[in-house]
Amino acid sequence: MDRLKRHAALPVLAAALLVLAIVSISLYAANRQATFRLEHLAGEASWLDDMTLEGVLHDGYHRTPFVISGGQVRFETEIMPRPIQVRSQPHSERGQKTIGERRYEVFPEDMQQYIVRYQAYVKGTGNYRPERGEVSVRVPIQITMEGKQMGFSNLLEYGLTELAGETYFTVPTLTTARGSNGIYRIDFASGESAEIVTFSLEGNRAGEDVNGNVQVLGLESVGNRLVLIVSRGQSLEVHAYDAASGRAMGKAVVADFNVISVASPPNTGEENVANDAADHSAERFYEDYDAYRDSSGHLLLSFLSNRSDTEQVWRTVVSLDMTAEEQAGGIALLDRQQLNWPNVREGYNDGAHIVDASYREDVLYIARMRVDHEQNAEERSRSYYADLYNRSLLLEAYRDEKLLYQGLLVTDANEDNNQAANVYPGPYGYSEYEHRRFDDVSWTN
What are phi and psi of 368, to 5 degrees? Predict the structure, then answer.
């Protein structure tokens, strides 16, 4: 009997080795056949000589990390041991904000009590882990909502950030808020919060755009500093605080930067002023900014302009050096550039969305998604389903609002969309398992 078992094990071993060989050959072939190259569209490629961009292109079955360094592309395809649900997260989406391996949400019990909650998850998937926490934070502010669209300047999750393993929170308030706001350190272990910074909102007066009125837009972190983003009258203010003590470490003011306040009555049309490119006095910026940090201690803020229309999307990117000495003001305003691209659909992974940004030696580097929304326009499915639009990753360099370089990362990922469009001319079931997408794209130097 033992001899029979030993002989029976040989076919099983041979079958296992065959499966392993097939997988290895498939992986090698996929890596050799994959399309990954950088196509230079405009300017000199030498602008990328000292820059490195990393990222991953993946679906539920494959994962291809890539590195673009010195204008050269390196990549390696991995086959997942088992299919996973691929999810990419923007700054804040549907009341959730992802930082590291925590997914946060905030909601008010009332206008002075806020629940901050998180649940740990497995990065790059939709799978949660058992770890979770919840803390109630009391903030002595007075929020008026009579006749207003909403009580906050942004999603509450814009007021969340992490620094050195700690979680911090402030309330994104409108110009109509009174009382006092602050920055709170959240301790999930004890279930308590502690105010480390406080600032008054009593200077806010009735009416909109009154010079001096404060609108808190969000909270970020760079290095060992907490960064409060504030709109005051016609200016954007960036305040830095020491995370341990709450001590003020500097401030930068961006003049002539009018952020729209949603405290105005709804549906008046006042926010959509004439988009005449020559009329800079009419330009205003929407409050839901995007924030980026680079390895040099820079904070970059991207705001959508109300000059955007169905033809063009306009964004202004502000670059700040958060490592400046306190004697020099603590924060240095390095750059402000106004950029524009053909309009697609404003939102995550559209033609106007900057995936990552970095500032180096007076040059603004951005990586953004280009969506070819008019490609194969005769296919009606592309007119209805944004998920089927072809997407490409663009690398761009700007100085003084002039394009210095533009490159396109060419891949075969759009074949996933082409196949779906051809197979499903009508309604279809979109699967994140079968459609590759870019994730974790960042400038790393």
Answer: -145, 160
What is the biggest distance separating any 2 CA atoms in the chain, rounded to whole angstroms? 92
- 311 vs 297: CA distance, rounded Å: 35
Decide: pTM greater than 0.85: no
CA 55 – CA 352 distance, rounded (Å):
19
Give the 3-state DSSP-derived string for 379-404, with helices as H, strands as E and coil as C.
CHHHHHCHHHCEEEEEEEEEECCEEE
What is the tens place of the pLDDT at every residue in 339-374?
Answer: 988 765 544 444 567 999 999 999 999 999 887 655
Q: For residues 366 and 317, is the Cβ–Cβ distance under 8 A?
A: yes
Could you tell me which residues are beta bridge partners of residue 169?
Answer: 160, 184
Q: What is the CA radius of gyration of the chain?
A: 25
Candidates 385, 383, 378, 409; CA nearest to 396 is 409
Tell me the HSE value of 77 on the side-chain side, using a 13 A CA sphere.
23
Whole-number Å distance between alpha carbons of 197 and 186 = 13
Cα angle 68-70-72, degrees, rounded to a multiple of 5: 50
Tell me, letter by letter, the H, E, C secondary structure of 337-355.
EEEEEECCCCCCCCCCCEE
Under 8 Å CB-to-CB from 67, ≥6 apart: which residues? 52, 53, 54, 73, 74, 75
The model's pLDDT over 221-274, given as tens digits with 9 standing for 90+, comes to: 999 999 999 999 889 999 999 999 999 999 999 999 999 875 543 333 344 443
Angle at 299 between CA 312 and CA 229, to 5 degrees: 85
How far apart CA 217 and CA 214 sit, in angstroms, is 9
How do the residues of the chain divide into helix, strand and coil, expressed in percent and rounded to 5? Answer: 15, 45, 40
Count Cβ neighbours within 10 Å for each residue of 348-374 and write b for 16 or more, e otherwise.
ebbbbbbbbbbbbeebbbbbbbbbebe
Q: Identify whether the C-beta of residue 251 lies closer than 8 Å to the C-beta of residue 240.
A: yes
